[in-house]
Every structure is written in C-alpha cells, then in structure tokens.
Amino acid sequence: MKNCKTTCSYCGVGCGISLSKDKDSFLSLKGNEHYPVNTGMLCSKGMNLHNTVMDKSDRLLEPQMRTAKHHPLQNVSWDQAMTRAAAVFKSIIKKYGPNSVGLYVSGQLLTEEYYLANKLTKGFLGTNNIDTNSRLCMSSAVVGYKKTIGDDAPPISYDDIENSDCFFIAGANPAWCHPILFRRIEKRKEQFPDAKIIVVDPRKTQSAEMADLHLPLIPGTDVYLFNAIAKLLIQYGAVDYHFLESHCNGGHQLLEFLKDVDLIESAQACGLELNLIEQAAKMIAKSKTLLSMWTMGLNQSSIGTNKNLALINLNLLTGRIGKAGSGPFSLTGQPNAMGGREVGGLANLLAAHHDLANPDHCNKVANYWGCGSVSSQPGLTATEMVDALDDGRLKAIWVICTNPVVSLPDLEKVERAYKNAKFVMVSDISSKSDTLKYADMILPAAGWAEKEGTMTNSERRISYVPKLIEAPGNARPDVDILMHFAQKMGFEDAFTYPNAEAIFNEHRELTRGTNIDICGVSYERLKKNSIQWPCPSTDHPGTIRLFEDFKFFTSDKRANLHVVEAPHQSEKTNSDFPLVLTTGRIRDQWHTMTRTGKVQRLNQHIPAPKLEIHPNDALELGIIDGENVEVTSRRSKSIIACQVTDSIRPGTVFLPMHWGYINGSKQARANNLTSDLVDPISKEPDFKYSAVRVQALAKK
Ligand code: SF4
What we know:
By secondary structure, the protein is an alpha/beta fold. The chain contains 26 helices and 26 strands. The protein binds iron/sulfur cluster.
C-alpha cells in the first residue's frame, strides 16, 4: 500500500488524513477532504504528524531489561523479555495475590489494544487494577453522562455545530485544544452571525477572545454559575416544562432548589458581575438551541462530577437534547479515549459498557472470555496506583503508551512511588518518556501508521487506522506484545488471534444488545466509511444523534436532573499559599511532548513554559515580566520564567502541563506543584486548583 486514509492520533476530534509514502518510505499527508469531521482541514499538530513518525532518532528499537534491580538495562530478545516479565508477574501474584499487580494504559491505544489489555487484566490476571490516563481527563464526564442520561454516551454529533445558534463553552479552550472543531464553530458564526458563543474560563484564552461573552470566573466556582443561569432561565421563560414532565426525573426538586439560589451571592462566589451572568442566561434563553461543550476545566476538579451535573441540567431544563444543534457535548482529549471507555478501560468499568458493579454482567463477560470469573470490586485508579506503589501494596506495574512521571499530579510522590516498585515495565515508542527512568523492563512499541486497528472520536465515530509502514528495529504493535505476554502467562487459548480484525470482531460481539451495539460494524465497512455507534446491524447506517425519541439509557428511559451544590473540596489558600494555580495545554504541544517536542516548527510557538500572572499580583510581589520566579505549593516547588498578562484573573496563575525533565532538570514541571486531591466519585484529580505562592527568584 502506498496511500491510505487514516485518522489523526492526537486529539479526540479525530480528523481524517490522507497519508502517502514514496519509494523511500518518505511520508507526506494532507487533510482528507471527504472525511466528515474535518473536510480537509488539519491543525498544526495534525499537519506535522508524519514528521514525528519519520524522525526515528528517539525510537526505542529493542526490548531492554535489568537482570536485577539497579543493574544496567541490557538489550534482550522478545522471548527473553516476555519470559522474564511473565515470571516476575507470576511470582508476585503467587506471593502477594492478584491485586499486587496492575496496568496503567492510555487513551492513545487503539481499541483492539485497549480491549486486550482489559481482557488480560480483568479476566486473566484476576484483578481490576487497570486504569488509564483518561482518568486524568474524562472520568468526571463519564460519571456525568451516566448519572443524567444513563450511560457514557455523548448524544451529539459534530453536525450539531452547523445547526446550533448557541455555544456554551465551559472550562475548555477548543481554539487551541480542539482546533478543527473550533474552526467549525467559527465558520458557523461567519455564516450565521446571530449565533452566540459564550466562554466560561478564568483565563482570556483564544476561544474567549472569539466569544460574544466571556465569563472569567474564579476557579472552582462553575456550579454557582450554572445554578444561577438555571434560575435565570426560569425567570426568562426558557424552561421546557413539558419536556421535564414527560421525559425527566428530578425536575421538580431542581426547580424547588433553584428558588433558594441567591443570584447576588452566586455572582459574588464566582467573582463576576451579576450583569454578565444575566447576559449569558439571556443569550441562552433567546436561542433556539444549546450546545454545551466542556472539557478539563470542569472535569479536572475535586467537584468535577457536580460541575458536569450542573451543566447538563441546563440542557435538560430547556429540553435541548436529542434535537439538531443541542446537547451536552464533552470534548474528548485523546484520540481513542472513547474507544477505551467502550472496552471498559477504567478500573471501575467493564467491557462493552457492562456494569462492573452488576454480578450478572461480570458473569456474562467472564463466560464470554472463558476466564471463570471477573471481580465486581473496582480496581485501583491512576492516583490510587501511585499511593499503592508508594506504600507497597502494588508491587508490579505495566505502563503502556503513557508517561505518568510527567502527567500525574504531585510528581515528587509519583517518582518516589515508581522508584519504590518491585517491577516497572514500560511499553512506549519513544526513549524520551521520563517514566523510562524507573523501568526495569522497556518494550519498544509500534506507533501510528505502523500498526492497524480502530479508534472512536468524541462523536462516537469509529474509524479504521491502517498500517502503512514497518515499525523500526524490533518494535512491535501493542496487540502483539500483549498476546506474547499473555501466552507466556499461560493464557494461550484466550490470547491467540490471527490479526487485529479478529480482536475487533470479538469486542464487537460483546456489544450485542447493549447501548453501544456495534454488531453492524466491520473492518470491511470501516475501510470505506467511518461509522457512529450504535450500529446494531450490517444494514444500519450508524447513529448521528442519540435520544431523538427522548428515550434515554436509564432504566425508566427518563433523563435525570440533579440538585447540585458546590462544596469547596480543593485545598485551601492561606497567607503562605495565597494564589490558585491552574494548569492546561498550549496550542502546538501534545501531552508530555514525546512526539510534538520533536518537531521544530511546533516548538517555535511557545518554546518554553511560562507562568502566567496578573499585573496586580506581579506588582504586589515585585515581579517583572520575563524574570524567573519560584512557585511553591505544599508539595514541592518549580522555577520558571513568568509572563505578566491581564489575560488571567488576579489571584490565579497558570502553567502549561507539557514539560517534564529539561536537560536533566525537573524544575519547570507544572505537576511538581499540583494537588493529588480527587473528585470522590470520578476519582479525577484536581489539576485546576492548587494553592501556591510565587516569589521573584532574584529577591529570595
Ligand atoms: Fe489532529 Fe485534533 Fe488537530 Fe484534528 S484537531 S488535526 S484530530 S490534533
């Protein structure tokens, strides 16, 4: 094959790409003009994706292992590596039980890889200790959807953008983080100038710059804002009482609760003029539709679940769901976070949206897999795994396609925990992952375009991702690595597949009769067209929008509104730590930069991390724009150049999360500082709220 149609492997937008290789395997790409998501458009990251693949300078080429702790890593054969890895896992499980091992995986895995990793862990290793870096971005949205519409099922389609006249974007900066979706919003605004864009964010981001209205609220106060807007929607006559009566539970209780919401107190809690909140509510009330969009600003919070519920209340109160242009739309961060959730990729989920807490579902899946049983006890989540490594409950961990030593909160603890582990195995494509510092075994993996499989984007669209080139050295697709390991563990019968398609077909069959039924999807169909689930039969075209009949995925088919309050569960600021640190992404970098950091053009946009601080705070602290400052939290400190800017609220500072070790120094890492508090339900970390102090380095 010299040309193929594939999908971008960065963000959850899932843009289509036309990829070509010449006789020297030199790759070139362009946006796929016929792909419905992006119709030929690509953002800066997508346009440079082939460059990350062609630059092999950092690639891991051979399996490596230590013969004993602290011995140097040595190149070994795949058979030696897998024999040793299986022997270590078997011995630890025998001595300490199955819950002493775990896997930490990634929303960048293909669905087939994700499926196998879950089947191996939950079905055959005998533990639910498999979690994913999607815990760090999507788990609050998963809970929000389940509690309101009955399942983790984004009801919207990107086509709703072209049908909407009101975009309520909260805790998200799609102009930088989901650029092609934002381009579609901009086009809609160009064609229909009456459409309103409202952005809720403590920072004046590029998305906020483009908005009709920006609400720069105090971090963590979103629930106050959403409740105030809900109350105003009643006053402005925008509540759909017929919809509430006919299709929802909890409407009456919410309307009663909102009677007691004090608008002036809410505005004060948010640090906003009441007039701004009224303007937002009027824009929503006057619109015919409501597309509410959110991501990390709501999800990465100690009250992330509450923020999701309070936002989804707005769609349900107004009956704006299941209709063109309307619905709650969680913007997915990673290319296959959705596919990962389909196969049960979190420690509290089960394959094909079965319920881990339901013993019948556990039995059904166990019978299907032929593994005897699946425990209904949730496994350790991303941050719980760190605690368990730290205190010795978790002895061995296999990290696949993610870099926790940069991306998790409270990195001093993370590094101590990984150092403490008896056995750390890491599969990755790149030697630049900081997690490799702690690896006892390193497994070289194939990357994008070097393996085949499927992914699902934020609008439930499944796409086929083909192999076009060979992986370098002895790097192998993750499915091959997982199968090899499972076979060495003695699970040959359940882990011998001729190809990725056979794994997909097994996953597909498990979805039969569920809300995500994809029994009508095949590689053959996907090679021609992407398909949005559910798609239960081969003659089914796929589902553009869910709930057009207003029958939700709850047991009584009614959506649930929730009375939501806003307890402050983040760590407290005080005179020692008076500022709130919030973290986030920048336009041209992706996660921990192991891929985008290789591309010169992408590094030019923002070459180094900078702490954004408001001029009032800078003046009070005697800080000059561009000088190095020391940022200290209750956990650790970082030293970073500062950028004095009025695009951030006074009292709040911002750091990008991408950078790990730079030239051997870890002083610029945002996650040195971040709090490891989590939402009690979703277990998603509170990345958006850490108490810090900032001091000019020169004055210390
Ligand atoms: Fe890739 Fe996302 Fe950019 Fe599309 S918007 S090209 S999926 S990074």
